[in-house]
């Protein structure tokens, strides 16, 4: 079964950096786009950053210049480097991927289990 596995969350102080990783596992998957979302307590889930198969990226305004999304299409892996973290970045971060399950030739949208990022002031 194709799934997303995230790693890299944790507790840091404001101004520090943290990196998140997300890899597709469990089968052959051709990702068309991969994204990071986050959900803070009491708030709706929001798109933080995305990267398309051709490498085009997009970011929510509040993280521009601080976060960098990158991907390794050969390994179906996406990373989120977060610098100059702020307390308001505290949230559960979810990896998301859209693409084709090559074995089943089926379109899938996948979600990771979420990883908690806590930024203390």
Explain what the structure shows.
This protein has 121 residues and is an all-beta fold. The protein has no helices and eleven strands. It has strands at 3-7, 10-13, 18-25, 29-39, 46-52, 57-59, 67-72, 77-82, 91-101, 106-111, 115-120. Strands 2, 4, 5, 6, 9, 10 and 11 form a seven-stranded mixed beta sheet that branches. A hairpin with a 4-residue loop joins strand 7 and strand 8 (77-82). It starts with a strand and ends with a strand. The mean pLDDT is 95.
> Gyration radius, to the nearest Å?
14 Å
Structural class: mainly beta
Average pLDDT, all residues: 95
How many extended strands? 11
Give the overall shape, derived from the CA principal axes: elongated
The percentage of residues in β strands lies in over 45%
Distinct helical segment count: 0
The residue fraction in helices comes out at under 10%
Distance, first to last CA: 40 Å
Low-confidence stretches: none
The ordered string of helix (H) and strand (E) elements is EEEEEEEEEEE
Biggest sheet features: 7 strands, mixed
Task: Give descriptors for this structure.
elongated, 7-stranded mixed sheet, 0% helix, mainly beta
Concise description?
It contains no helices and eleven strands.
Chart the SSEs and their pairings:
Blueprint: E1 3-7, E2 10-13, E3 18-25, E4 29-39, E5 46-52, E6 57-59, E7 67-72, E8 77-82, E9 91-101, E10 106-111, E11 115-120
């Amino acid at each position: 079964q194709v799934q997303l596995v995230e790693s890299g969350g944790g507790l840091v102080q404001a101004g520090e950096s943290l990196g998140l990783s997300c890899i597709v596992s469990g089968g052959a998957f051709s990702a068309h786009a991969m994204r990071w979302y986050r959900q803070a307590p009491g708030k709706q889930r929001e798109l933080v950053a995305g990267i398309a198969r051709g490498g085009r990226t997009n970011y929510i305004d509040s993280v521009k210049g601080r976060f960098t999304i990158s991907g390794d299409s050969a390994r179906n892996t996406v990373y989120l480097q977060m610098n100059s973290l702020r307390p308001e970045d505290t949230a559960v971060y979810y990896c998301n991927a859209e693409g084709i399950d090559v074995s089943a030739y089926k379109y899938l949208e996948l979600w990771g289990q979420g990883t908690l990022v806590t930024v203390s002031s």
